[in-house]
Amino acid sequence: MDDDRAIDFVLNGEQHRLTRAQVLRAAGLGGPEPIRTHWVAIGELRWPPRQIFERALGVPRTDFISHYAIRQLRRLGFATSPLPHEPAVPPAAEPAAEPPPLGNDLGSAIKSFIDLHDFFGQEDLSSRVSRLEDRLEGADRETVEERVAPEGLTDALLKGALLVRTHAGRVNDLIHAAMIVRALPKILEPGERIVRRPSLASGNDGGRKFDLETDRRVAEFKAAQWKGRDTMRKRLLVADLVALVLERGDRRAELYVLGTPPIDYLRTSTSTVDWALGRSSPHLRQAYEQRFGSAALTVGQFTGGPAADVVLRDLREIIG
């Protein structure tokens, strides 16, 4: 399947472009939420269409319905649940179920993780795979095992990798929730009270504008580890900063991130806020323009100006 496949469409009067690669990258940022009715198959997992469409496009899921997301994701080649009045998906079209790995008790899971950690720590995987390819050239049934044995790709290692992957899809969601929970006792002040159910999963729903709302502050938490090519993370970070400025009311605003690169980006970037909000909801873009006009503020100018009193904090300094 061509990961560069792209589609153009109009959503709520706004022109958008979405690629298959964007959807795949979005799936790599964290695992799926529970399926209720509809699903879209990405790799070996099924996702709620609105969750993955929101994450890939950068538009809140309150701006569209599942049927709309399904139709666009189908255009990119992803299998989905049937829409009303469509026949059920035949068994052959459903994602193949992965056989459960053996030894899925806690002790096996811990050992599997240790084995994988040791395996990856010994040598760069690309170098090892390249050497394996050389070793296998000219091999036959009788000599395959002998040639691959020195590289350590055993049945046990494979089963361990399958076991770890079973749970790896939700690791990012776990990190987001755990970082907020572990930070709360260290950031809440005496007498401060959480006034709205916090949003511990990635992405806020329409009823919860912020990850944390207390009687004194509103706060957003970004647990992503930046890797150098972080265009979508940059857009989402700026959108959160703008939302904090626009919708905090009379409470103080705070933005928590993982590491210093996100903070450095906000303070020094010469990209415009208009660019950063290019895939945000029309509501947020309109609210920004109404408050600040059409002046092409850079991200750095916005952070040092209208957002100057938003506290930017590195979560590593709080939770260690």
Overall number of structural domains = 3
| Poorly predicted parts | 90-104
Q: How are strands sequenced across the largest beta sheet?
A: 5-6-7-8
Shape: globular
Compute the number of strand runs. Answer: 8
Helix content: 40-55%
List keywords for this structure.
two-stranded antiparallel sheet; 3 domains; globular; 14 helices; four-stranded mixed beta sheet; 320 residues; alpha/beta
Molecular structure report:
This protein starts with 5 loop residues before the first strand and ends with a helix. The protein is of the alpha/beta class and 320 residues long. The chain folds into three domains: 6-93, no CATH class; 106-168, no CATH class; 171-319, no CATH class. The protein contains 14 helices and eight strands. A four-stranded mixed sheet has the order 5-6-7-8, with helices on both faces. A two-stranded antiparallel sheet has the order 1-2.
